[in-house]
Design brief:
Layout (H helix, E strand, L loop, with lengths): L11 E4 L2 E4 L10 H5 L2 E3 L2 E4 L2 E2 L2 H14 L8 H14 L5 E9 L13 E8 L7 H6 L1 E5 L21 H12 L4 E5 L5 E4 L3 E6 L2 E5 L8 H12 L3 E5 L11 E6 L3 E8 L2 E2 L4 H14 L6
Length: 294
């Protein structure tokens, strides 16, 4: 299937304080964010004209920049206004929103104190991350080679470009082997997340969630766990080991792009049930469309 390249689309992108034609939103090849991964970003969903948890996403963007040792040269309110402007300019009601900030090209090298901080917001249509067939069947997942590092080695609570390098490697390996997704363990061998979403497990009326001590505690993850508690499920956040997988009867992933998607299998372990996952899928859909509040 042929895809329209992202640099060849029509529309507008908010770039350093103004809306510019999509194809004109460019950076120099010697940009620090490109060479040294000094870039932070957010992925957000627009539902019926409203960004789900937009304020929380903007605040996390600023926190990520702080962890990466740079300051975004706009206020939280200004970034929220920039997102609204980009949405309006592209006449979107439902779609994907990506604000991001990066170090420019004034200085090339590990040290980058003199580099200007640039900020941009792009929005586009993106109906679903996984195909409808994959969602109905449950994702086919394989455990990956690359692991989430010790948090003493990376700023693990920043949503930063460099932290996704191993995700791409794991994702490609999984897809090449015929899987939809890849399970990432942490440096201790504990279950962490998938390449672009958090993962949760169900046993009876309990939902077990890996402790997010070396990966992002996703905004969607937090929302779904709140929905689960509202339903009366017991939520247990703890270290989960791969050998425990056969003890669970359901699994699902959560994320801005993935939303709530069932997992059908991990390696040779099959999760036969969907009952709890389907309830939370519907609750989450009601939440993001304003039919339910927490």
């Amino acid at each position: 299937m042929s895809l329209l390249p992202f640099d060849a689309r029509d529309g507008f992108i908010w770039y350093d304080g103004e809306l510019v034609p999509w194809k004109d939103a460019k950076v120099h090849v010697l940009t620090h964010g490109f060479h040294y991964a000094s870039l932070v970003f957010e992925g957000e969903r627009l539902y019926d004209g409203v960004i789900f948890k937009g304020q929380e996403h903007t605040e996390r963007l600023f926190n990520s920049a702080k962890l990466m040792d740079f300051t975004i040269p706009y206020s939280v309110d200004e970034i929220n206004a920039a997102k609204a402007a980009a949405i309006a300019a592209n006449k979107l009601t439902n779609g994907y929103v990506r604000p991001f900030a990066w170090r420019g090209s004034e200085q090339m090298g590990v040290s980058a104190k003199q580099n200007k901080i640039h900020v941009s917001v792009a929005v586009w249509e993106w109906p679903t991350y996984f195909t409808a067939e994959a969602r109905m069947a449950g994702l086919k997942v394989v455990t990956g080679k690359w692991r989430r590092p010790d948090p003493q080695t990376i700023p693990c609570h920043a949503k930063a470009a460099g932290l996704y390098m191993i995700c791409t490697l794991n994702k490609h390996a999984a897809e090449n082997a015929g899987y939809n997704e890849c399970l990432m363990l942490d440096w201790r061998g504990r279950i962490a997340e998938t390449t672009g979403a958090n993962i949760l497990f169900v046993r009876g009326d309990e939902i077990h969630a890996p402790t997010p001590d070396c990966f992002l505690n996703g905004i969607t993850r937090q929302s779904v766990l709140a929905l689960a508690k509202r339903r009366g499920f017991k939520v247990i956040e703890r270290a989960i080991l791969p050998e425990e997988l056969p003890r669970f009867n359901e699994s699902f992933v959560t994320g801005t792009a993935a939303e709530v998607t069932p997992v059908g299998s991990i390696d040779d372990v099959i999760f036969p049930d969907r009952e709890v996952t389907k309830v939370l899928m519907q609750d989450y859909d009601d939440l993001v469309h304003g039919r339910l509040t927490l």
